[in-house]
Design goal:
The chain has 202 residues and is of the alpha+beta class. Helices cover 26% and strands 32% of the residues. It has one domain: Gcn5-related N-acetyltransferase (GNAT) (Aminopeptidase). The protein starts with 15 loop residues before the first strand and ends in a 10-residue tail after the last strand. It binds coenzyme A.
Length: 202
């Protein structure tokens, strides 16, 4: 039976079916009708990233401010790097992740997972997990290419937010401190240390 994979065997669901790190692109096969494709963001993604961000975070609104913020972060590449996820045959982003490198382009690199959001209607379908896991593979390859290694991932999130469970599950991150009254309340600081956590996702 012919498939979209031509003469190659059809991959098993959950298996990476295409990898082109030169273009910062990975595809995860999710069954014939459902593919999550994670790739480096390009300028035409900016309006979609702003739209998804404004839907998820009140601090980014209104949309014009959100657009300016995303444009500014985008312009800070390679210190900041957006990756987007596309679902199935859709060519507009279903979600995004923003990585930020801290304290210099160090040999032992310290990254912050600055922001992640998935369109509301598409949450709970595995897009968030794939954004974290697949973009991190790309980020690690980039670090390796310049002779660096990922040392620590920092994440801050509202202490009342249920996303703590998401970061624990996808990165093995654990809360280490609380910053009182930062944005709309207290913020939790979480850390993941990939090298000490070889058995986990990162
Ligand atoms: C947080 C967010 C990015 C997760 O994306 P998602 O696509 O819904 O998550 P997934 O479907 O990939 O879930 C991945 C895993 O995390 C778990 N998870 C997802 N959201 C969770 C939550 N709020 N609390 C605990 N676990 C959660 C899932 O159960 C799943 O675990 P499993 O694979 O072991 O079953 C998404 O819900 C979102 O955009 N929220 C609004 C913005 C936000 O809060 N961003 C983070 C704060 S900075």
């Amino acid at each position: 039976m012919s498939s979209q994979f031509g003469s190659r065997p059809t991959p098993k669901p959950g298996q990476v079916c295409h990898r082109s790190l030169a273009y910062g692109e990975l595809m995860l096969y999710m069954g014939e009708s459902k593919q999550i494709r994670v790739r480096l963001a390009i300028p035409s993604d900016i309006p979609y990233i702003a739209e998804i961000g404004c839907e998820a975070f009140s601090g980014l609104r209104p949309l014009e401010c959100g657009m300016r913020w995303v444009e500014a972060c985008f312009a800070a590449h390679p210190r900041m790097e957006y990756w987007v996820a596309e679902m199935g045959t859709e060519s507009t982003a279903a979600g995004y992740i923003l990585w930020l490198e801290k304290g210099g382009f160090r040999k032992d690199a310290v990254l912050e997972l600055e922001q992640i959001a998935v369109r509301k209607a598409m949450r709970g379908t595995g897009i968030g997990r794939e954004l974290v896991v697949q973009s991190l593979q790309g980020v690690k390859s980039r670090l390796q290419a310049r002779g660096s290694e990922l040392s620590v991932i920092e994440i801050t999130t509202g202490s009342e937010q249920r996303a703590v469970g998401f970061y624990r599950r996808t990165l093995g991150a654990n809360p280490v401190a609380t910053i009182p009254s930062l944005f709309r309340g207290d913020e939790l600081v979480l850390l993941a240390r990939p090298r000490l956590d070889q058995g986990k996702q990162v």
